[in-house]
UniProtKB/TrEMBL annotation:
Pfam families: tRNA-synt_1b. InterPro entries: aa-tRNA-synth_I_CS, aa-tRNA-synth_Ic, Rossmann-like_a/b/a_fold, Trp-tRNA-ligase, Trp-tRNA_synthetase. One of its GO terms (biological process) is tryptophanyl-tRNA aminoacylation. It comes from Candidatus Chromulinivorax destructor. This is Tryptophan--tRNA ligase. One of its GO terms (molecular function) is ATP binding. The keyword Aminoacyl-tRNA synthetase applies. GO terms for cellular component: cytosol. Keywords: Aminoacyl-tRNA synthetase, ATP-binding, Ligase, Nucleotide-binding, Protein biosynthesis. The gene is trpS. Belongs to the class-I aminoacyl-tRNA synthetase family. It is an enzyme of class 6 (ligase). It comes from the Bacteria. Its EC number is 6.1.1.2.
Amino acid sequence: MKFEDIILTGDRPTGPLHLGHYVGSLLNRVTLQDQYKQYIMIADLQALTDNADNPQKVRDNVMEVLLDYLSVGIDPKKTTIFVQSMIPEIAELTVLYLNLVTVNRLQRNPTVKAEMQSKSYGETVPAGFLMYPVSQAADITIVKGTIIPVGEDQLPMIEQTNEIVRSFNRIYGKEVFPEAKALVSKVGRLAGLDGKAKMSKSLGNAIYLSDDADTLKKKVMSMYTDPGHLRVEDPGQIEGNMVFEYLDVFDTNKEKVAELKHQYRQGGLGDVKLKMYLFQVLNDLLTPIRLKRAELAKNKDAVMQILLEGTQQVRLVAQKTMDEVRKAMHLNYE
């Protein structure tokens, strides 16, 4: 295990995790836990930046996200899982960082701009939402994270974190924090079932790890394919066809996928048959996850204990980090 590098990643508990999370980050986390000191944070405070009026939703989904982590193979003996709101040092560090970044810089953050647009925020944007890149910087640096698994759309967040780190170290004359490096997933953003945007809880176009077989089948059968492919014998388009995009990602039998693509282009392969094949591929993938998740859910107290124990471990790390911060800033009055 390479203790000189620390992995930090996490998810907002606004719903159970979906296939986009699975290929985008969860598989990476399962592999990385055997190579590095890894922390996974459930970002409940960040979830409140656009769910402040529904805290119960966020609270309920902490357990759902935790069950998803454990069911895909995240091992609490190898990975420390913690919840953001129970680490008050993160909030304290966020307040200190806010003095090191301007409002204009936050408004220019491409990720923030894109998410504000998707949520139709203008002048009504909550201050907490606008400043969440600063909170993310505190999330990363409170454990001195050095490698952060992200999608390409999150690269501006890592850039902003490193700007804050450089400012802090320069202003206070001490190398308290290391800069972080992004580890970009090999699989890009997974499109939604409708083919119009990324797979997302808010857009209602996602397949969840917790979906049962019937729900999975209904979702697959509703997937966007080629609107011009009206009859089985008609040639079909592969490009923009969500069924083939998913097969490229999830089917390990690449020769079979190539054969299906050829047949579809030539004509003679119907969408129903093609979707049924994808359903079987995805159901084979999700069945063991689904079964393990159901077993874990029988004892949610034990599952919650995993989170509480991990959080307590991080409290100790966070307290040590803040001792260094206060010393560097001459705030150590004891």
